[in-house]
User: Fold Tol-Pal system protein TolQ from Natronospira bacteriovora.
Amino acid sequence: MNNGEMSVIALIAEASLLVQLVMLILLLASVASWAVMIRKHRMLGDAEEAASRFEQAFWAGGDLSELYRDLTEQPEGMEGMEAIFEAGFAEFAEGRRRPGQSATDAVESARRSMRIVHMREIDRLEGNLAFLATVGSTSPYIGLFGTVWGIMNSFRALGAVQQATLSMVAPGIAEALIATAMGLAAAIPAVIGYNRFADKVERLETRFDTFVEEFCSILERNAHAE
Assistant:
């Protein structure tokens, strides 16, 4: 196995400058995509846990004013569903204090505030997903470019000799196939990660949408009851 590894390293070291550049680009893209996926896995996992905790506290039947005070007094900043609730509750309370504003207007104002925070949160959760999509869609073509260039060099070397042998073209073809393999190695995890994280973001977006509508219904009932 050690000889095989050394032969691969030797092929990369002896590859043409352009093919080496292609391999370096693919290596950097792969490392960057893995870094994004690790960070995104943690971010979305924390967002799902935070949403579940908040929903449990919200639907526990306690006083929403106390829940609002608890959230605003916590040292760390609010994100996700907590931030949406804070924006809606604060705007609704402010709207009810404005003279001449109806309950319906206060609820709609709260809805708009929550929608703004909702879109901001989704934009935060979607950050760098486009990078994963780009790596997944372009890496095979970048690797294919290195493959084509390596094979072209091999055939160019054949044209300069009288008698062609397999040993003359094997290194060029091998380095070309390495570029192809590196392109696939960068693309496949990025595509899987993108699909997985995009699905999680979509599920969180649905939960946020549902919460906004449910909270607006509660605010409307409370406003008319007052």
About this structure: Residues 8 and 42 are 35 Å apart (CA to CA).
